[in-house]
Write a structure and sequence with these properties.
Blueprint (H helix, E strand, L loop, with lengths): L1 H16 L7 H11 L1 H22 L4 E11 L11 E15 L1 H69 L4 H36 L23 H11 L1 H22 L4 E13 L8 E13 L7 H68 L4 H35 L5 H11 L2
Antiparallel strand pairs: 1-2, 2-3, 3-4
Helix pairs in contact: 2-4, 3-4, 4-5, 4-7, 4-9, 6-8, 7-8, 8-9
Length: 436
């Protein structure tokens, strides 16, 4: 038994010592789909919204009810000689709407409510995909930035040591030492800021996915900078006007307000219901017979016509019309916003790809400048200040390239979202292109 316990402890210790399993973009999404509380709430809201259709349809179906009664009577006046008696019975009733505008529009509103729930869930799913990608790239961006800062710090430290040595032997001035010290101190301060940003980015990714950020997979250095497909902005705008979830949501809200107008106007109209019933009653009240037992059934049509409601119905109609007008304006605002979002994301992809190429070339030039400046310093035609400036330009280009690369990838997903085309499959396609 003791050996089994030791084995179990050893296995647990080994498991805790193992590194976290690496994950990519798709792995982060799959984890978030099961872990993220906001997405779980959206899923539950969708399930609740599915009941709107059932509830609306139920108003058009027959409504059946059964009731029972029992009473015990003890007569006091006018004659105390009258004996006590009991009565009991039951009644079964069925009602079927034949004409009721309010119930019919309730059914239509139920269908729209279910569609709204589906649209809201799809929007939540697309937003989570974009949030996961953004958080994923933010971690990588923060890591690249911190790595560049630490490399810059190391360079400044070496230059500072060289400047101090040169000053001690009299081959350099104190100005070179001060310049190197200032660069080193600035790199130390920047390292603290970048480390803080990395921790925040990792915490955000962990909050969304529950995964350990240290296991994140990096992105390949050379990205395929493909243009959007289709390549034209107008094609993307047309696609967005047809598939945007923002526009679908606004259209469904407009349909809901139109049904409300029909419902309120229907309050002026009569309602017609088919009714049927069966009753059975027994009473032993003293009468000509020792016991009374009655049974009967009925079938009929009930018509109710409203005459006057104090002006309330007209007021409700005017309110519903105003809400319809507001929903119509909100739909137009949604269309304009979607067009703007598509243009912004489209430019983020096209101009972003050009920016990545330019930053890649700038990085090559900056690296060449550092090498030539270092050589020039060795032969005496360049100073430590020149080398510091060249090093700083190189690490700035390195950081700028990282920002451009991750912004380009985010813009690709944002463009798909603005057109209502951002699906898990879309994330998988991007993942295959970028992950090493």
């Amino acid at each position: 038994m003791k050996n089994h316990s030791l084995t179990l402890i050893a296995l647990l210790a080994l498991g805790s010592a193992l590194p976290a399993q690496a994950f990519d973009l798709v792995g982060a999404w799959q984890a978030a789909r099961d872990y993220n509380a906001d997405f779980a709430a959206a899923r539950a809201q969708r399930e609740a919204g599915q009941e709107k259709l059932v509830q609306g349809r139920s108003q058009l179906l027959p409504q059946a009810s059964v009731s029972g009664n029992y009473s015990y009577t003890n007569p006091i006046q006018p004659s105390s000689a009258q004996r006590r008696y009991e009565s009991h019975g039951y009644n079964v009733g069925v009602q079927q709407p034949l004409f009721d505008v309010g119930k019919y529009t309730g059914y239509q509103k139920g269908k729209i409510g279910t569609q709204l729930a589906d649209t809201a869930f799809s929007a939540a799913e697309q937003q989570l995909i974009l949030d996961i990608a953004q958080a994923y790239f933010d971690v990588l961006r923060a890591r690249d930035t911190l790595a560049a800062t630490r490399a810059s710090k190391k360079t400044y430290q070496n230059l500072l040591e060289q400047a101090k040595t040169a000053f001690e032997v009299g081959t350099a001035t104190i100005t070179d030492t001060h310049e190197a010290q200032a660069g080193y101190d600035g790199a130390v301060a920047q390292e603290i800021s970048d480390a803080n940003n990395l921790e925040l980015a990792e915490n955000n990714l962990k909050r969304l996915t529950g995964l350990e950020p240290s296991a994140i997979q990096s992105v390949r250095e050379q990205l395929p900078l493909d243009p959007p497909k289709p390549a034209g902005l107008d094609a993307w705008v047309g696609m967005a006007l047809r598939g945007s979830l923002k526009i679908q949501n606004a259209e469904q809200n407009l349909q809901l307000t139109e049904q409300t107008i029909t419902e309120k106007r229907g309050n002026h109209l009569p309602t017609v219901n088919l009714t049927a019933g069966y009753n059975d009653a027994i009473s032993n009240q003293p009468s000509l017979f020792n016991q009374q037992h009655t049974r009967g059934s009925s079938v009929g049509v009930t018509v109710t016509l409203p005459l006057f409601a104090g002006g309330g119905i007209n007021s409700q109609v005017r309110e519903a019309v105003a809400q319809r007008d507001a929903a119509r304006d909100q739909l137009e605002a949604a269309r304009r916003q979607v067009k703007e979002d598509v243009r912004k994301a489209f430019l983020g992809v096209t101009n972003g790809a050009a920016l990545v190429r330019a930053q890649q070339q700038l990085l090559v030039s900056a690296k060449s400048k550092v090498e030539s400046t270092r050589l020039g310093k060795e032969v005496g035609i360049r100073t430590s200040i020149d080398l510091l400036q060249a090093e700083q330009a190189y690490y700035t280009a390195l950081t700028t390239l990282a920002n451009a690369k991750y912004s380009y990838l985010t813009a690709k997903l944002a463009l798909a979202q603005s057109a209502g085309q951002l699906q898990p499959e879309t994330l998988g396609e991007v993942n295959q292109l970028i992950v090493r």
